[in-house]
């Protein structure tokens, strides 16, 4: 009587993820897209309302970092008009929009470059 054995020569075959049988895979058919500026990774906008979180009268890059308004890797900050400010502050070394400048000066503050 003949003993029937299982054929093993065809078992275990696998193809890698994304393989499409020799046709150009979807990952390679589609173009690359998008761009992230390196400067955008170290730039931030700060609202007027967030300036109230800073203790003291002088607002600069270091005081914003100390108050946890911006992260430690931020190097460029722009103050934008959003919300209200009701205490007089001196903004040093930060870029300020026209509307924010008017609001800071109306509250009795000033801007120094």
TrEMBL record:
<protein>
    <recommendedName>
        <fullName>50S ribosomal protein L15</fullName>
    </recommendedName>
</protein>
<comment type="similarity">
    <text>Belongs to the universal ribosomal protein uL15 family.</text>
</comment>
<feature type="domain" description="Large ribosomal subunit protein uL15/eL18">
    <location>
        <begin position="53"/>
        <end position="112"/>
    </location>
</feature>
<keyword id="KW-0694">RNA-binding</keyword>
<dbReference type="Pfam" id="PF00828">
    <property type="entry name" value="Ribosomal_L27A"/>
</dbReference>
<keyword id="KW-0699">rRNA-binding</keyword>
<dbReference type="InterPro" id="IPR036227">
    <property type="entry name" value="Ribosomal_uL15/eL18_sf"/>
</dbReference>
<dbReference type="GO" id="GO:0006412">
    <property type="term" value="P:translation"/>
</dbReference>
<dbReference type="InterPro" id="IPR021131">
    <property type="entry name" value="Ribosomal_uL15/eL18"/>
</dbReference>
<dbReference type="GO" id="GO:0022625">
    <property type="term" value="C:cytosolic large ribosomal subunit"/>
</dbReference>
<dbReference type="InterPro" id="IPR005749">
    <property type="entry name" value="Ribosomal_uL15_bac-type"/>
</dbReference>
<keyword id="KW-0687">Ribonucleoprotein</keyword>
<keyword id="KW-0689">Ribosomal protein</keyword>
<dbReference type="GO" id="GO:0019843">
    <property type="term" value="F:rRNA binding"/>
</dbReference>
<dbReference type="InterPro" id="IPR001196">
    <property type="entry name" value="Ribosomal_uL15_CS"/>
</dbReference>
<dbReference type="GO" id="GO:0003735">
    <property type="term" value="F:structural constituent of ribosome"/>
</dbReference>
């Amino acid at each position: 009587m003949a003993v029937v054995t299982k054929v093993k020569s065809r078992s275990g075959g696998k193809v890698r993820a994304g393989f499409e049988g020799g046709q150009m895979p979807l990952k390679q058919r589609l173009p690359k897209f998008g761009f992230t500026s390196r400067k955008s990774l170290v730039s931030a906008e700060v609202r007027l309302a967030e300036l109230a979180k800073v203790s003291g009268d002088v607002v600069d890059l270091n005081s914003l970092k100390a108050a946890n308004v911006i992260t430690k890797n931020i190097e460029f900050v722009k103050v934008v008009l959003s919300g209200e400010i009701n205490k007089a502050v001196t903004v040093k070394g930060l870029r300020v929009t026209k509307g924010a400048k008017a609001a800071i000066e109306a509250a009795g503050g000033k801007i120094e470059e």
